[in-house]
Amino acid sequence: MQISITNTPTRYGWATIILHWLIALIFISQFALGFVMVRLTSQRTAFELIQLHKSFGFLLLGLIILRIAWRLGNATPALPRSVGALERRAAPLAHFALYGFQLALPLSGWALVSVSMLEIPSLPFNLFIMPNLPLAESDAAESFWAATHWYLAYAGMALVALHVAAALRHHFQLRDGVLTRMITPSSDPE
């Protein structure tokens, strides 16, 4: 059995699998970190967690761009024959929505820090200063982007929950190998 970096018509390769799980881990962790950091009473700890949140946000943005480019350049394994017509139409839309949220969330966060009247620089992993987006600073813009980022975060997590539920349904109810092929490329083909 051959293990591949790239996707095949029936299996995901290691590159897709690693990107998928790394992005999933960062995306879910970012939600938890964002939830905690805005509720802290210690300004110093909150500041440090905000910088960490921004760092992982920029990393997430880079990884999702890489993931989309990789997907466009690789075959997408076909769904098993047992998957119905409605699911066949819904699956690509759900993936498109996930990619959209994974792009929109870090971009809205970047916009938020770019328009903030506080003018606190973003220091990804304390390596360099990330330039702000060319947006005008104002309290109104900051309020808009803060609300946008908040709503996108909750909607994105709801979509992730739906994605997880669908994967678990495929694994435990349908037993069709859809989840298994995103865990390891060396699993037996469907």
From TrEMBL:
Domain Cytochrome b561 bacterial/Ni-hydrogenase: start-end pairs: 11-184
Annotated family: Belongs to the cytochrome b561 family.
Principal subcellular localization: membrane
Record SUPFAM superfamilies: Transmembrane di-heme cytochromes
Subcellular localization, as worded in the UniProt entry: Cell membrane
Cofactor(s) in the UniProt record: heme b
Record's keyword annotation contains Transport: yes
Listed name of the protein: Cytochrome b
Membrane topology: Multi-pass membrane protein
Species of origin: Mesorhizobium cantuariense
Spans through the membrane: 12-36, 56-73, 93-113, 151-172
Keywords: Cell membrane, Electron transport, Heme, Iron, Membrane, Metal-binding, Transmembrane, Transmembrane helix, Transport
UniProt cross-references to Pfam families, sorted A to Z: Ni_hydr_CYTB
